[in-house]
Amino acid sequence: MRLKHVAATSCAALLTVLSLGGTAVATTDPTPPSTGDDALVVPVGPAPAAPQGIVEALQRDLGLTPDVAKSRLANEYRAAVQEPLLRQRLGAHWAGAWLSGDTAQFVIATTDRHDVRAIEANGATARVVPHSLADLDRVREALDRSAQRRAPADTPLWYVDVATNKVVIQSHNPARTRAFVADSGVEAAAVEILPSAVQPRVLADLRGGDAYNINGNTRCSIGFPITRGTQGGFVTAGHCGRAGATTTGNGAAQGTFQGSSFPGNDYAWVATNANWTPRALVNRYPGTVPVAGSTQSPAGSSICRSGSTTGWHCGTIQQHNTSVTYPQGTVTGLTRTNVCAEPGDSGGSFISGSQAQGVTSGGSGNCSSGGETYHQPVNEILQTYGLTLTTGGGNPPTGCAGAQNTYSGTLASGAQAIQPDNSYYETTTSGTHTGCLTGPAGADFDLTLQKWNGSTWNAVAEGTTPEADETISYNGTAGRYRYIVLAYSGSGSYTLGVSKP
Fold first, then answer.
1. What are the residue boundaries of the Peptidase S1A alpha-lytic prodomain domain, all occurrences included (predicted)?
2. Are 158 and 189 members of one domain?
3. Considering 115, 144, 161, 266, which one is annotated as catalytic?
4. Cα separation of 93 and 90, whole Å?
């Protein structure tokens, strides 16, 4: 489960009258809530239990004790819930967030010292820095544009490092890299050049994660199963095959590449025949890990990778928005990790907890001496090709039958709606409030019941599983209530059934 705070909306003098369960109420909103530091606190409930094998893998690969591993996962969960809402609230001051240390202490950077109290009110450590994340992204984008003309072969890697508040460039030849920076026209003070011997390469030589074969020759790994309408398939790395290439799995006919992009990006998707059924699972060698969604984890979070060449390995996210120059060209927007990989792991799954993160692109080093690996974020692939990630669950929630009133609407990913009808309802007696939300397949929709305390709306019950459907039951006193429907990820139509005392 993920509990996410929904900010109260401003007062609106709507003069219509609605009826909920037979009680007529005016839709004028009460006095808006305070905008002080307390209003910025994002409440977070208990973290869900870790999928089987995650704690053991973190002990093995990060050298953690069981208690520290569990504490780390709980802190990572909290940070993943808080980060998107705090990013929105800090606005142009936002300079990034990351997790630090074995227990994953949440750190948030800002360019405005006046944000420190609000950050610390959420249990995070505040850092005041000179460059906003938007500033650093513009520097990285300028380097990306320059690389499209000509990327130096001895400048294989650059990325926004929020922890140092710089765009870091790894270089075989710092002098030539400085010339590359100057030609890009970026602010030198926002760039740090690090000597490095890293030489990224794609990892498509041999068999991969859950292996598949391309055109009877090259082998790669399945990233994550998906659907597109009624068509099943999977996402993988773009360098594994071009559109039209055919695939086999376990020696049997499997599918055809429908779309592929590399370099520039490194993603593709394959449509499979009716003999193959998408499952919301990642191979853990042995065992499996369920896939519940695709919420991106912050830098510093733990992450695990699956591939048939090297099996199941874990590490941490180093940076998002990394640009990598392979011999074939530059790929932008990758995530850099310190998880090892070897040829044959390309296209395989990167996952944090039960949340899909991306598909293996390339890396350096190996799983004997250590190395680093880059992945293409999965949400970009899904959005580009209009795909739906295969996730667990999806059954209609119980308790929907016999609702007193129903409301419906359509939400884009990240949007929210207030029900009933952008207002609230009022009860004069104590009793049970029930809300039953049915959302679109493959999405993660959440439901929150709020009560007005005289100055602000407080969440009194929440349904925040990684599924599209949620059910809430709350035994409350008389007062004013409203529901918030949030499209946490994915988009589409929803129906909300509501009953009150």
1. 131-187
2. yes
3. 266
4. 6
Whichever domain contains 158, its CATH number is 3.30.300.50
- What band does 202 get if pLDDT is binned at 50, 70 and 90? low
Please say if 114 is a catalytic residue: no
Burial of 369 (0-12, 13-18, 19+ CB in 10 A): exposed
pLDDT digits (tens, 9 = 90+) for 285-296: 777 777 878 888
Domain membership of residue 49 (yes or no) is no
Q: Model confidence over 164-191: pLDDT tens digits? A: 999 999 999 998 899 899 989 998 899 9
132 carries an active-site annotation: no
Total domains present in the chain? 4
For the entire predicted model, the pTM comes to 0.61
Which residues of 367-452 form beta strands (DSSP E)?
A: 370-377, 388-389, 405-411, 416-419, 425-427, 431-438, 444-452
> What are the distances in angstroms from CA 398 to CA 292, 409, 436, 451?
19, 20, 8, 24
Exactly one of 346, 349, 352, 354 is catalytic; name it. 346
Residues 455, 382: one domain? no
Q: Is residue 351 part of a domain?
A: yes
Domain containing residue 441: 17-33+394-499
Mean pLDDT of the chain: 83
For tokens 């140092």, the residue is 164
Asked if the structure places residue 492 within a domain, the reply is: yes
